[in-house]
Design goal:
Largest sheet: 6 strands, mixed
Distance between the termini: 61 Å
Structural class: alpha/beta
Order of helices and strands: EEEHEHEHHHEHEHEEHEHEEHEHH
Number of strands: 13
Shape: elongated
Strand content: 15-25%
Number of helices: 12
Radius of gyration: 26 Å
Helix content: 25-40%
């Protein structure tokens, strides 16, 4: 278990983490989410005593990380897949970690097999692709067979098979009763992996809840209906005290009533339904809704100077070029001046 109490980190005038208090519990995969600059990486570094908190504390199973006798046997972490000596082979990189933490040499071969790198164990890591580097970093995290695992963006560079593998690995580790803490910007993948979410924005805690409750609390859920007898359906719904909204495409949308109840109501009145489907926002939509006011770095859909007069519009769906040939069109002129 990882416990954060009033965790705060300031870099000069910049408050990176602001009084963060939460608990990462065993037996589930806990997702750690936040916009760029929210303080996720700083928080994870403080958990491992790589950065010293300005205020507050982090306890790993009741101890500070620096107090752990054999840290790799307690906590396995992947924060930077490239944090290794490029001149060492994959096997020797892990062997150095094993020997410095009292881990048997045989464990190196086991984790290389687990992550799929046994065939390249003798190759230098500097020649590894991003995905292979991620696998080697994950092997390092697994090396001490720890009860607590932390992964920062573990699917970066992995192919679809690798993403599927790491997802199942994290779920299996949690099912064994271990604490699994993972940070990622891939919302679709996090939705398939995490059971619980801790969300921060501008260094402050925004949510600490289950995946299902997070989506429910930060998005709209409704039931969509479609029927060839839409007017009669509207009358039946109104008679039952159910408010329905008609959309432009002829569907009906109902908030606050379960799909099963609506289906039974239609059946009692012998109404034909061509669609009866519960609708819920994705994790990405709920996340965007919650963090809208906490985004530090805002991108724009059009580059500077992209406004064009009405008569310069291009075909539908294609942005018109601004006067002068578009963004950066005059860079050669500036270069030559």
């Amino acid at each position: 278990m990882i416990e954060l109490q009033g965790l705060t980190k300031r870099y000069g005038e910049k408050l990176a983490v602001d009084g963060l208090t939460c608990t990462v519990r065993p037996g589930i995969v806990t997702g750690f989410l936040g916009p760029n600059g929210a303080g996720k990486s700083t928080t994870m570094r403080m958990m491992l005593d790589l950065d010293r908190p300005t205020h507050g504390t982090v306890l790993i199973d009741g101890q500070h990380y620096r107090q752990l006798r054999d840290p790799l046997r307690t906590v396995g972490a992947l924060l930077d897949a490239k944090a290794m000596h490029g001149g060492r082979s994959a096997h020797n990189h892990l062997l150095c970690l094993a020997q410095s933490n009292g881990i048997p040499r045989a464990r190196v071969r086991e984790v290389l097999d687990t992550v799929g790198l046994a065939s390249v164990a003798g190759k230098r890591s500097k020649g590894f692709s991003l995905g292979m580097g991620q696998r080697l970093g994950i092997a390092g995290a697994l090396l001490g067979d720890p009860q607590i695992l932390m992964f920062d963006e573990p699917v970066n560079g992995l192919d679809p098979e690798g993403i599927h593998w790491i997802r199942n690995l994290m779920k299996n580790l949690a099912a064994q009763g271990r604490t699994v803490f993972v940070s990622s910007h891939l919302m679709s993948e996090m939705a398939l992996t995490a059971d619980h979410l801790i969300v921060i924005g501008q260094g402050r805690l925004l949510a600490d809840t289950s995946m299902a409750d997070f989506i429910k609390q930060n998005s709209r859920s409704y039931v969509r209906l479609r029927s060839p007898e839409v007017e009669r359906l509207l009358d039946v719904l109104a008679g039952a005290g159910v408010t329905a909204v008609t959309t432009e495409d002829g569907h009906l949308e109902v908030d606050g009533t379960e799909a099963a109840e609506l289906g039974e109501l239609a059946a009692r009145h012998r109404l034909v339904l061509h669609e009866l489907s519960p609708q819920q926002a994705s994790l990405e939509e709920a996340f965007m809704q919650l963090t809208a006011e906490s985004v530090e770095y805002h991108a724009h859909s059009a580059p500077p100077g992209a406004d064009a007069p009405p008569d310069a519009a291009g075909p539908p769906g294609v942005a018109a070029a601004p006067p002068g040939g578009g963004w950066g069109a005059d860079w050669q002129k500036k270069k030559g001046s």
